[in-house]
């Protein structure tokens, strides 16, 4: 019996010891969980950059003369055509038809139901405003219906805008 008690005591002691070690190591290990917020902070960095004020975009005007209309058409067909037609009198789809959009009053294409956010924006589609819109629509017009991530590459934006400019009876002058 004495033997059994000794053994049982040992088992109990080791169990207790294991529990204590477990708690202590938990306490020691726990601070490492702070790694997670550290990663989250790193994650936020790119979006903070992407959400930088639209005003910090370099002017696109000087890039338009050297832009490539054909390349712009290719980018447009890949990225924009799912939602926009560009032919004269073309249908509105998810987005409005974009014939003659350069210089047009914002949110006024006939028969399209614009978001109130874009209607409230006001003014005309200058080259620079289109640049901001296609760089990051949701930053430029908070609450826009244009659910498009945006074209990050300046060259692609210049090419697309140069292409949009050609879609008019009388293309607007280059800046
Ligand atoms: C997922 C669909 C979608 C894609 C992709 C998309 N757009 Fe749009 N676009 C819209 C919608 C919807 C609106 C109307 C926005 C509103 O009312 O807020 C719009 C509005 C616009 C306007 C303003 C038109 C006006 O009459 O005021 C321009 C310019 C424009 N888009 C250009 C582009 C270009 C260029 C691309 C490709 C780089 C593109 N969009 C990609 C859906 C899209």
Kindly describe this structure.
The protein is globular, with a radius of gyration of 30 Å. The model is unreliable at 39-54 (pLDDT under 50). By secondary structure, the protein is mostly helical. It starts with a helix and ends in a 9-residue tail after the last helix. The chain contains 8 helices and no strands. It binds heme C. Heme C binds at residues 79-80, 82-84, 94-96, 98, 101, 106-107, 109, 114-115, 117-118, 125, 130, 133-134, 141, 144-148, 151, 160.
Question: How is this structure best summarized?
Answer:
By secondary structure, the protein is an all-alpha fold. Helix content is 52%, strand content 0%.
What characteristics describe this protein?
175 residues; mainly alpha; Cytochrome Bc1 Complex, Chain D, domain 2; 8 helices; 52% helix; 0% strand; binds heme C
What is the secondary structure topology, with strand pairs?
Layout: H1 2-29, H2 35-50, H3 61-64, H4 69-79, H5 116-121, H6 127-135, H7 137-140, H8 154-166
The structure holds heme C.
Heme C (HEC) binds next to helix 5 and helix 6.
